[in-house]
Automatic annotation (TrEMBL):
Residues the entry annotates as binding Zn(2+): 311, 313, 316, 342
Biological processes per GO annotation: tRNA queuosine(34) biosynthetic process
Protein name as catalogued: Queuine tRNA-ribosyltransferase
Keyword tRNA processing listed: yes
GO molecular function: metal ion binding; tRNA-guanosine(34) queuine transglycosylase activity
Cellular compartments per GO CC: cytosol
Amino acid sequence: MAQYTLMKTEGRAKRAKFETVHGTIQTPVFMNVGTIGAIKGAVSTQDLYEIGTQVELSNTYHLHVRPGDKIVKQLGGLHKFMNWERPILTDSGGFQVFSLAKLRKIKEEGVHFQSHIDGHKIFMGPEESMQIQSNLGSTIAMAFDECPSSVADRDYVQKSVERTTRWLARCKKEMARLNSLPDTINKEQLLFGINQGAVYEDIRIEHAKEIAKMELDGYAVGGLAVGETHEEMYRILDAVVPYLPQDKPTYLMGVGTPANILEGVDRGIDFFDCVYPSRNGRHGHVYTNHGKMNMFNAKYELDTRPIEDGCGCPACRHYSRAYIRHLLKAKEMLGMRLCVLHNLYFYNHMMEEIRDALDEGRFAEYKKMRLEGFAAGEQK
């Protein structure tokens, strides 16, 4: 079984290690998003080792649609398929139910929706989500949930959350069954439950209490970063995290900017994931200690400096701003790749600094310094 060890706390911030069948995760951690079993932007798993990635995140729904989870199972599971030995977390497909709203129909047994690729009908419920994730053989499977809109009315959110709780019980039961089968790839697969409740603190707290009783391997806060303000997100975290088990990992799904991560760590979050670093990188937007830079900017045309002085990423060690700008302008894939590598390295390295700051009891001052740096740079 997985072992979560809390090593240090500073206020609500947690510094821990989470031992899994695919290696130990040092937290707080940022998971690098490889939706279909690869990071967008021509980034290989060898690159991920080089830039300090601890956990890769893939998507249940997308891999089910293409190439098919049964095919991945025949090929030995996702770790073998993508040649990655460290932990993988697979999300449950629940968020796609939210994002494909026009193509879906939610019922008690699960969700009927259409593939975004070719329109064929798909049914996914708690059992199907667990079966797909078991076929993929990920380290951590996420429970199947509904992610209600942050602007949904209270009555809808209440009913949705109650159904998510019932679905979680079904996920837990099915996961136990799958882990006991002889041909299961990863019999140690872990299950994280997801707290929902939109922006209603009381619904969130009640739900957190309910799922905390279920003794899962970890707990996520879902349904944030979907349209509410940063202030609302922080308010919900302040309210709900104290009701999630302190001795289990907490995961804030789909968040976020470097500033969001610092605020999340401060509120007791262990795990983060977000498409920002790779998506922004593909558009030539790179993160630095002084805010974001747009590499398409004409002022970098003759700039021989790296993206950021002192950065140890493959882009900064070998190439100039001028060259990277040229690649992007010429629509050369290497330009995207270098920006994505820089951004993921930046995030992974920031998490390392956060862990060091927590180890040394100086997270509060580190957070203050970082936020001031980001704010100063963005005004230039």
